[in-house]
Amino acid sequence: MTKSNKTMMILSAIGIIFMVDNHCNEPLGFLTSLFPYNSFFMPMFVFISGYFFKPERTKNLLWYIFDKSKKLLKPYYLHNVILGGTLTFLASFIGISWIGDFSFYNLVYVAFSWGTIFDITSASWFIIMLFCVVIFYAFINSIYGKYTFTKDSVFLVLLIIIGAISVYLSMRGYSKDIRYILALKVAFYIQFYHLGVWFKRYLDFITTRPLLVCGVSIGLSIVVHLFYTNNQLVFNSTAFMQSFTCQFVLLPFITSVIGILFFLALSQFLTPLLGDNLLINEISNNTLTILTTHLIFFNVINLFFFFFYNFGFFQDFNVDLFQKSAWYSYNANPVYKWFYLMAGIFGPLLLKRSYIGKLLKI
Fold this sequence. Notes:
By secondary structure, the protein is mostly helical. It contains 15 helices and no strands. It has helices at 3-23, 41-51, 61-91, 104-110, 125-144, 153-171, 181-202, 210-227, 230-233, 251-274, 278-285, 287-309, 319-324, 334-353, 355-360. The radius of gyration is 20 Å and the shape is globular. The two termini are 23 Å apart.
């Protein structure tokens, strides 16, 4: 494995840890005052995917679509239908009414719009978006690749403009219409996919200057924070494209680039130390499993609190929220957040190695 690939593996592991940390109310909260998680980390995953794009593989577009369907759509439906559906059904027997069912509407229409078939596996919306971004990008490359159009900086500028239009339309209410939501997500995220392709072609050399990149990124972040609050910088759930609040529609792209560059440079620093680390590689190689199943293990923790709640303990545990949402986490004590973080990262890794995980090939 090349040094660049090791750096990207570390960046991927950092990203998935940040995602889980964000979902359990940030017990780690690493540098979030400078780089709020939701201002960059989902675009960072798409950037990493773009970095590994291989244009030569799109010459046979049908085979490429089949291959990506096997790598992305298959685990999406395995995780959702088998794990998400089964757990949602079983949870109903103890009074839990998490969203989701096996209707055609959910399995097809919701899957290819919001991407949230079942509440317990709803974080997997990202997979459908990434699949559509990858296929659309491959289609463009198969048409214009011989003209190097998809490798051109002009194309990057065009995609940035399209991404800004997506943000604008989302804030104008189009994201509330299920007919437009997937198109808005693809329009927003494809700029980061191409950024990964473009970066590898033109700017990969800057990773040899990580100290400089870190310094510039911190400086830019400080400047951005002089003009905008954290609430304006974050876009919390692009599954629904309804959390953009700042009228400056280029701001999500700017904050994403700043965050990506900083943590890319940090990963470069860590490559000699962690490039061959087994745990980092395990986390990086199983990002999709962690992404789609970490809420399951959050709720293993919740079930523990719920069980003892019925015996008079943890009386401030919000049973109503737990029964209505798989996203609830009990944070009466800051230590509890670490339980969720550890469960959300290591639970999926254990599942992967379990009999169930091997049976489902997740």
